[in-house]
Structures are given as C-alpha cells and as structure tokens.
Hints:
Layout: H1 2-35, E1 62-73, E2 91-101, E3 106-113, E4 119-128, E5 138-147, E6 162-173, E7 178-189, E8 208-221, E9 224-234, E10 248-256, E11 259-266, H2 273-276, E12 290-300
Antiparallel strand pairs: 1-2, 1-12, 2-3, 3-4, 4-5, 5-6, 6-7, 7-8, 8-9, 9-10, 10-11, 11-12
Amino acid sequence: MNKLLLLILLCFFSVSINAQDDLMDMLEDEVEAESTPEKVMATFKGIRLINAQTIQTTKKRTLEFSITHRFGDMDIDGPTGKHTLYGLENASNIRFSFDYGLTDKLSIGWGRSKMNEHVDVHGKFRFLEQKKGGMPISAAYYVNAAISPVSRPDTFELVNRLSYVHQLIIASKLNSAISLEILPTFVHRNFVDQTILHPTNGSVDENDLFAVGFAGRFKITKRMAFVMDYFLTFSEFRDGDNGFYAPLAVGVEIETGGHVFHINVTNSAGIIENDFIPSTTSNWGDGQYKLGFNISRVFSF
C-alpha cells in the first residue's frame, strides 16, 4: 500500500512539474511576442503612387500588371482645350509594366513607355520595415536601367541610348490615415546635348541629375484616398527660364479588390524617373496639366 501511495505521489509531482514548465513556456512566449514590435502593414496600397515609387514591393510569387496613361494638356482656358476635349483626344504617354515578387521584400520588373520609346528593367528591395513601438520608418532601394530605341537620323551608338536611376525610398505611416515618404534620386543619362546653352546663366545640360521627391497618401474612406507627389531637381539648366518645371501630381486612389486605381492630374508627360525628372516642360501656371490614370491588377501563383 505504501509503495502504491508513493508511486501515485511521484506521478502527481511529475505531472505538476511538467504543467508548470508548460505554463512557464507559454508565459515566456507571450512576453516575447509582446516585446517584439509588430510590423506596420500597407503603408501604401500600390507599388507606385502617381509618378513616385512607394515603399511597397510586389508580394512573393505574385505578378502585378500595371497600365499608366497620360492624356494631353487640358488647356482649360486656352485655345486648344475644347478642340481636343481638354486633352482626352491626345495621348502624351502610355506605359505598361510587369512586376514579380521574388520574395516579400524583393521584386523585379519590366516596362515599356511611349515617351522616348523607353524599355526599362527595374528592381526594388525593401531593407527596413516600420514597426509599431519600434522602428519609425521603412526604407527601400529602387534601381532601373532604360534604353531608348527611338529612331534617329544620325548614327547613334547603343551606349548613348542608355539611362539609369538609383533611388532611396524612406517612408512612414504616421497613423491609419496618413502615409508620407521622401525619395532622394539620382538619374544618369549616357548622352545629353551640351551644345544648347541656358538663356540666362549659360549652363549646359548634365549627364548626372540629383532630385528629391516628396509623396503622401491621405485616407478619405476605407477604400479611397487623396494622393500627391512632387519632385525637385537640382540643376542650373532646369528652371522656368529654360522651359523646365518641377513635376507635381495630385489624384484620388480607389481600391477595388485586386485593383488599385488612381485618377490624377499632373504636368508631367513622363512616367518613369528617366523621363519626368529631366524632361518635364509643362507648367501648371499655364494650364499645361494632364489628366491621367494608373491601374494595376495582381495575379497570385
């Protein structure tokens, strides 16, 4: 009887100790989960805003197809506006692109634009993630290489048709309604025409351009937001006296299931950085702004 009682007591204490160990493990897991900051999700809804890239990358094993369209200048108060249905009859630029997620943080893509007939390959790597109660920002690196196969009357070597972009994207989701980002950008074009002088300061075009972009998303409803972006290019050659202006875009974003749709107004005909940073020649003040839209569709594999 004593042996039986001793055996029962040993079993009881063994179960009790194991239960305490399991409880301690559970408590430790909960404490660890609470101490690990939660990632901030969906800072932006798409991989592009209007002109600007966003911090978002295409998800792993997902293909994103995008179409971007820019109509002609609306010229509401000018002589041509009503004759072109305020630019709707003209297409200043059209672009379609494909982006594929190799991982949740790394995506690659390919695109084709009407302007300069640019064909580009690009990639984006998100290397820093914002976390609640922790890291206050997200950061990504974007790079592209573009070639312009547009026909020219003279002999133009392949190397002269190439241009490149390197961009750092720094973003923060301030709250559920407001997301902001800043985009330091470097554009290199292998060939520029340096025979043309600036009319007032005598400067010439540069192969290397530095610019900084600012972008924001301001949520209006659950599926609608106001979006805008602006790029300032640091160049003596590019100012209003020489017919160049900073690209500014404003628009509305609408999310509908697998689609993200932007309808916008911008003075930039260019869609990729290789075009809109060096080549925006339309002025908002002169009514030279264009209606446009971006639409994307996601396919999962």
